[in-house]
Amino acid sequence: MIRFKSLGSGSSGNATVVQARCGTQVAHLLVDCGFGIREIDKRLRAAGMLADQVDAIFITHEHGDHIGCARQLALRERIPVYMSEGTYAALGQPDLEGLLRIACDGMLFEVGGLQVRPFTVPHDAREPLQLTCTDGDTRLGVVTDLGHVSAHVLQEVAGCATLLLECNHDEGMLAAGSYPPFLKRRVGGGWGHLPNSAAAALAQSVHAGGRLKQVMAAHLSEQNNKPELARQALSVALGCGEDDVLVADGASGSGWMTA
């Protein structure tokens, strides 16, 4: 069984715990670690966990709201850290004291009973990766930072039962908002962040394959989106009620969900 919980999702920080349970064995993967060490400890405790229960850390890319205290946490608890060669280079090749594990597109690795498959996405980082996770029965896709939905992204998430999916901005709010023009171009461009409409189209495509059961909207912009807009777009795409669409926020993330 796979469960997951967003510890927080937004421009102020991002982190998600994915838990796989196989009999008496329980494994925990921390996807991104975009908070300070005290804050990540606090959020893990709120999730009913301690930091020493994290079996591996996966860093999607080098931006500060995703990398946070990853090195500090890894060294303190002796946790392996997975990231791409490009992300490692962009971070200045920090000394991880033998804990670094290089990940790349399509390279499978296992954390306990959890099989993880990273894949490349179009985003303005050195070598960004997102991922799917499976315990052999169900598949969870984490797709939280990308500028557009490529054919490769669609292929990788096609069999997912659950998606943690970026709904960064509403295109009308971004256009009318207070961001300077260069930032609007960056956020709304093909290597920036996913708008509600594109997220809905992705969810609709996966849903048409017959396996998608639930979607949690993530990485919402505080300035350029509203939870109700993300819910509306996704509910129309999935043919469900707006209350059936989950939203992770920056302050508290989400509750524990079964994938």
Commentary on this structure:
The protein is of the alpha/beta class and 259 residues long. The chain has helices at residues 37-46, 64-67, 70-77, 85-90, 151-157, 171-176, 181-188, 196-208, 227-238, and strands spanning 2-8, 15-22, 25-31, 56-58, 81-84, 100-103, 109-111, 114-120, 129-134, 139-143, 162-166, 214-218, 246-247, 257-258. It has a single domain (2-252), classed as Metallo-beta-lactamase, Chain A (4-Layer Sandwich), CATH 3.60.15.10. Helix 8 (196-208) packs parallel to helix 9. The N and C termini lie close together (8 Å). The model has no long low-confidence stretch (mean pLDDT 96).
CATH architecture: 4-Layer Sandwich
Low-confidence stretches: none
General form:
globular
Corresponding CATH superfamily: Ribonuclease Z/Hydroxyacylglutathione hydrolase-like
How far do the termini sit from each other? 8 Å
Helix run count: 9
Given the helix and strand composition, which structural class is it?
A: alpha/beta
Indicate the CATH topology: Metallo-beta-lactamase, Chain A
Strand content: 25-35%
Major beta sheet summary: 7 strands, mixed
Number of strands: 14
Mean pLDDT: 96
Radius of gyration: 17 Å
Strand order of the largest sheet: 6-5-4-3-2-1-14
Proportion of residues in helical segments: 25-40%
Number of domains: 1
CATH class: Alpha Beta
Query: What is the string of helix and strand elements?
Result: EEEHEHHEHEEEEEHEHHHEHEE
